[in-house]
Prior knowledge:
Shape: globular
Number of domains: 2
Helix content: 25-40%
Number of strands: 13
Strand content: 5-15%
GO cellular component, one term: cytoplasm
Bound molecules: pyridoxal-5'-phosphate
CATH topology of the largest domain: Aspartate Aminotransferase, domain 2
InterPro entries: Kynureninase, PyrdxlP-dep_Trfase, PyrdxlP-dep_Trfase_major, PyrdxlP-dep_Trfase_small
Radius of gyration: 22 Å
Protein name: Kynureninase
Number of helices: 12
Strand order of the largest sheet: 2-8-7-6-5-3-4
CATH class of the largest domain: Alpha Beta
Cofactor: pyridoxal 5'-phosphate
Pathway: Amino-acid degradation; L-kynurenine degradation; L-alanine and anthranilate from L-kynurenine: step 1/1; Cofactor biosynthesis; NAD(+) biosynthesis; quinolinate from L-kynurenine: step 2/3
Amino acid sequence: MSEPTLLAKELDQADELAPLRDRFVLDDVVYLDGNSLGALPAHVPDRVADVVRRQWGDLRIRSWEESGWWTAPERIGDRIAPLVGAAPGQIVVGDSTSVNVFKALVAAIRMADAGRDELLVDATTFPTDGYIAESAARLTGRTLRPVTPAEVPGALGDRTAAVLLNHVDYRTGRLHDLPALTAAVHAAGALAVWDLCHSAGALPVGLDEHGVDLAVGCTYKYLNGGPGSPAYLYVRKGLQDRFDSPLPGWNSHAEPFGMDPSYRPAAGAVRGRVGTPDILSLLALEAALDVWDGVSVAAVRAKSLALTDFFLRCVAEYTEPGRVECVTPERHAERGSQIALRCPDAGEVMKRLIARGVVGDFRHPDVLRFGFTPLYTGFRDVERAARVLGEELA
Ligand SMILES: Cc1ncc(COP(=O)(O)O)c(C=O)c1O
C-alpha cells in the first residue's frame, strides 16, 4: 500500500465532495472540531448583512411578512428534513436543543398511556439531556431510569412511557442502532425520542423510515449554522395532533394574532414553536444550509467513513503502539463521524496540537476528540493531523 502522504493525495483527487471545501472560510489550520462548531460557509456573512441592513434596517416590521420571517421556523425545518430523512411538515426550528429535549420528553410522556410510570434515559448521554429528563420525570410524576443504550431492550416493559437516546455518543463517537432500538421501544408500547446532535449532517438518520416518534438536534455542528444557531424539533406526522407542548407559546397558537386568552394549538409542526423566533441566527442558518443543495447524505457518509478509516490507519502508522486507546468502535455500523482517543495526558496533548494548527478538542478526563466534517475535511488534513499527533505523543 502507498505511503500515507501519497495515498492522501490520491484520495483527495478522487474525492467528489472536495470542491465543497472552497465554500467555507478555512485557513491553514486542520479543523477537526466541526462536531462542536461547524466552519463558516463563505456566503453567510453577506446574507446576514442583507438581513440586518435591508430586511431589518430598511423594511423593519414589514419583514415579518415580506422577508418571510414569520414562517422561517417551519420553512427552515423543511430544509433540514431531507438531511434527516423526514418528509416536509414535521420539523420546526427554534430554541436550543436543551429546550427541545424538554418539549419532546414531556410531550412524549403525555402521549404515553397514563399507567406507564418510567422514563428511560441514556446513562451515557450528553449531560443536558440527563438533567432535563430528570426534571421532566419529576414534573410529570414519573421515575427516571438511566440505562446504557445496550441495556435498553432489557429495561423496556409495560411501565415504560418514553425513552431518550443519543444517535451518536458525544464522547466516544459510537453510533447507536436507531432502527433496532426504535423498533424495540415500539414493541414495548413506548415512545422513542432521539437526540441527533452528532449525527445530522454526518450520516443518514432515516427518521420517517424507522418510525421515530420525536427527535431533536442542534444546527451548529455538522449543519454549520453558527454559534448558538437554533435547534430543531421533529414530531412524526401521525403524532402531531396529540403533541401537547409543555411550553405552549403564542407562536404555536392556532391564531397567534387573535390574542385569545386561552390556548388552542396550531396544526402540524408549528405546534412545536414557543415565542418570537431568533431571526438573525435563524436566517444565518438558512443561508448556511445552501451548501447542502445537491449533496447526498449517502456520499457524505461514505466520505466520513473513509476519513475516519484513514485517520485510524495514519494514527497506527505514526503513533507508538499502546500510547493511545481508540474508544470509537472499529465497525462502520457503530461509528459516527468522529474518532475519540484516550490517553492520560489528553488535555496537555490537545493544547499542543492546537498550538501546531490541528484543532480537535478535549473531553474530561482523558479523551482527545477529532470530528470529521466531510464537506470540508480532506485526506491530506487527516494525514497531517495524525502525523502531528504522533509527533506530540512521542
Ligand atoms: C448530544 C447533545 N445534546 C444536547 C446538547 C446541548 O445543546 P444546546 O446547548 O443547544 O442546548 C449538545 C451540545 O453540544 C449535545 O452534544
